[in-house]
Amino acid sequence: MDFSSDSKTSDGKPWNLKFSSWNINGIRAWVDKNAHSYLTAENPDIFCVQETKCEKSKLPAELNVEGYKSYWLSGDKSGYSGTGMYCKKEPVGVTYGIGDEEHDAEGRVITAEFDKFYFVTVYVPNSGRKLVRLEYRMKWEAAFREYIKGLDAKKPVVLCGDLNVAHKEIDLQNPKSNKKNAGFTQEERDQFSELLEAGFIDTYRELYPDQLKAYTFWTYMMNARAKDVGWRLDYFVISERLKSSLCDSVIRKEVMGSDHCPITCFMNIE
Fold first, then answer.
1. Separation CA 14–CA 165 (nearest Å)
2. Is-contact 270 242, C-beta < 8 A?
3. How far apart are CA 246 and CA 238, in angstroms?
4. For domain 17-267, which CATH number applies: 3.40.50.410, 3.60.10.10, 3.40.50.10170, 3.40.50.1820?
5. pLDDT over 90 at 78, yes or no
6. With the C-alpha atoms ordered 170, 173, 178, 181, is the resulting torsion angle positive or negative?
7. Helix segments in the chain, DSSP class H
8. Is the entire prediction scored with pTM above 0.85?
9. CB contact set of 134 (below 8 Å; sequence gap of 6+)
10. Quick check: 2 and 24 in contact, CB under 8 A?
């Protein structure tokens, strides 16, 4: 697979930073499938994973990749949630969670600070079958949005991860039958709209507002991936003032190894 790009900013500057993100749905199974070879093939400057489902002490040795420093966060509950971040350039600092005890037990957020920007990866809580966690999800969304706004007040933010929401009807195959299902309730969609209205950009829709079949997740049931019956749940979201730095935002549908596929963002940040 060719992961190269000659993309440029709107004023003609070539990209100088490549970021990738992937909900890997269990890091040990992901390694068993040799899907971690994607990292060296894509060769991003920062690579983030969500839903690792693994305590740091039990991470496979294969995850030590030359040329990268890695950071891991697991939740209090074993085999659940969890996030990771690989960086070529060592950050100024790394923090875990959002500084809120109510929301930091599940290992969902890692933030790396660099000279010119903050880089955040997140695995947003799923509202669950019959929306059993929707009320909690709303509390999470409000707290996380305030956290991101707080970072943005200091320097621009690049946010990536599984946001567990298909924002618009174009972002999933069957919108009408999913309006009361987790990931496409009006409440969840409104929360994402609020984040964007707070000064952020959905990079993919900024560049490809009308692109159909732009999915990043397919259930393992009913041969959904082969039929391309999916959802766009994974995003790169950036501060509005980084809009002129955006070169491209792409979905790596052809990469296998999870029920999600990776996404990659190309930027020029000088």
1. 31
2. no
3. 9
4. 3.60.10.10
5. no
6. negative
7. 27-32, 37-42, 134-152, 186-197, 203-207, 224-227
8. yes
9. 127, 128, 182, 185, 187, 188
10. no
Q: Encoding tokens for residue 190?
A: 């409104």
Tokens 């060769």 label which residue?
43
On the question of pLDDT at 144 being above 90, the answer is yes
The model's pLDDT over 162-203, given as tens digits with 9 standing for 90+, comes to 999 999 999 999 999 999 999 999 999 999 999 999 999 999
Q: How many CB atoms lie within 10 A of CB 191?
A: 21
* Cα gap 4→247, rounded to integer Å: 13
- Cα(130)–Cα(229) distance, rounded to whole angstroms? 21
Going by their DSSP bridges, the two strands 157-162 and 234-239 should be labelled as antiparallel
Residue-wise pLDDT for 96-142, tens only, equals: 999 999 999 999 999 999 999 999 999 999 999 999 999 999 999 99
Q: What angle do CA 263, 264, 266 make, to 5 degrees?
A: 160
Which sequence spans correspond to the domains of the chain? 17-267
CA distance 173 to 192: 19
- CA dihedral (209, 210, 211, 217) positive or negative: positive
Length of the chain: 270
Q: Please report which confidence band the pLDDT of residue 69 belongs to, taking 50, 70 and 90 as the band edges.
A: very high
**Whose structure tokens read 């499938």?**
33
Question: What string of DSSP letters covers 171-213?
Answer: GBS-SGGGTTSTTS-HHHHHHHHHHHHTTEEEHHHHH-TT-SS
Q: What tokens does 72 get?
A: 């891991």
- Using the predicted structure, report yes or no on whether residue 44 has a pLDDT greater than 90: yes
Give the catalytic positions in this structure.
123, 162
